[in-house]
Amino acid sequence: MKNLIKHILIIFIVSGTLLTACKKDFLNTKPLTEVPSDDTWKDGALSAAFVNEIYNGLGNGGFDEQMLASLSDEAVFTHPGRSINVINEGTVGPTNIGWTNNTYEWGSMYNRIRSCNVALQNLATAPIDQSLKARLQGEAHFLRGYFYQQLVRYYGGVPIIKKVYQLGESDYSATRNTYDDCIKFITSDCDSAVTLLTGKTLDLGRATVPAALALKSRVLLYAASDLHDIPTAKGKSSVISTYAHPELLGYLSGDRTVRWQAAKDAAKAVLDAAGTGYKLNLSAPASFDDGKNNYISIAMGGGSKSTTVDATASSELIFARYFVAGKNESGESVGLYNGPNGYHNWAGNTPIENLVSDYETIDGNKFDWNNVTDKAAPYANRDPRLYASILFDGAGWKPRDKISGNVDPANQIQTGSYQVGSGMLAGLDTRQSSIENWNGSWTGYYMRKFIDPDPNVVDNNTKQFIPWPFFRYTEAVFNYAEACIELGQDAEARTWLNKIRFRAGMPAITESGDALKQRYRNERRVEMVYEEQRFHDARRWMIAPTTLGRKLIFITVVGNLKPGKTAPSPYKHDETVYNYTYTPAIDNGIENRQWLDKMYFLPMSLTEVNKNTQLIQNPGY
Questions:
Q1: Which terminus of the chain, N or C, has fewer Cβ atoms within 10 Å?
Q2: What percentage of the chain has pLDDT greater than the value 70?
Q3: Model-level pTM?
Q4: Residue 332 lies in a domain
Q5: What is the pLDDT of residue 38?
Q6: What's the number of domains the chain is made of?
Q7: 244 and 390 assigned to the same domain
């Protein structure tokens, strides 16, 4: 018995020793689901994975449920109470910054900038393939420049952070750099990206040489604009004129001609490096149908299988956010978010009449509600881009029976009310719809641009894969034309603007001087609609008081039966049966918009100011 106990004790002791050794070995084992940070930069694939993740800071581009268009005079967000009105009504401030998107929110951008800095710091000495290293460094420089560009165009000068802060440092605060400092830093990142990416073959959605040049072009165009020339801005804004730190908002002095020339040169570099764009070689206006289809094809960016869409229009995209089947991202639901409620969609960011009125007539004249002909048929003979961008009463759309039943064989948008017998029938896409009555448009319009026209794509329940255009060739054309106008080179500006207009089926512009500038600005407005341009353009041109500050204008449509006519059943738009009236009117029921000069820049939140006591707040806040 004693010997048995002795043997058992020995077994326990040995087993314990072995278990202890095993535990120690286990503690020294690298986890299978994690990679130590030092190992990341010793392996090319892991280094690439790190940089790939930084691209997530681009989010869904502009394809969110709430779009930046609804913070401009392009659209209104249909569902109140989402903090958009906080900004549009001027009640925004450090303690209530309103709706923000993670693609420009202060903290989100600095988190991504830190990742870029981590990559650049470690790639400098990473023992990986040199060609891959150069490519990843180029991408990191581009992304850092892009994220800083986002901050600067919303907030003005921001702290430039190039180091990687570690835990336990005594001071994390930083002062805001001047606007000039920031522009120089961003353009330097662009130049570095161009050098490092030259000759590299990259996948769709990655940074390229043309993308870096396009970013530089945008940044230098903004830098030359009125808002950032402080002597000019002070003359247009009392808030800026009394601000104690104008160097954070723009240039205190210097030759604006030099800045415009730099913007022109940067835009021309994009045009020279990025091919020829899409159908910008026409010598006369395209036909109406071709102009409309050209614009729809550009908006689809090669992401639609519709037989009516030209997939080669993807050549227009310089840098875009692409969506891949199976990932189930919110950017794949732009049709659900914005389509008509009569198709069981949510009508999110609906166009306003302020925008629709700015589409010219097909002969190039300004549309005018005071013109009897225009008012009688406001959707006849207009710029083809209107029909490719906006759904209005009577516009043809997708088969409704695929989602809503056989209630509309004509497949037309119904945003009015129509006489049936002695009563009135509310249209299927109104807020009194018999299909859904809680989420219809208030404005009388729906967004069409970026929604796949393929009749087999049911927006309510089918994903679509339309790329979001961060930079497209046409933006560079506009940048070049704007700089030419500011430099007095009107003929060159007209040449390039007419390339865009001919593609859209519109006649040539012939004006000069200020008249040309105004035509240019309207051309940019309608061509780049819903692309997150107008929010910034109206500010940098300092025309926001008369554009973004205008009251919302909605349209009311009424169809009265002509004498002796009988209403069709089910209803369809028919001008032989109905007399239609269209009434534009101001409506403050959703948002009571106003413009305050502090809104030229966004405020930094109280949280950020408390974290960094060296931050100087923007004017008016």
A1: N
A2: 94
A3: 0.94
A4: no
A5: 80
A6: 2
A7: no
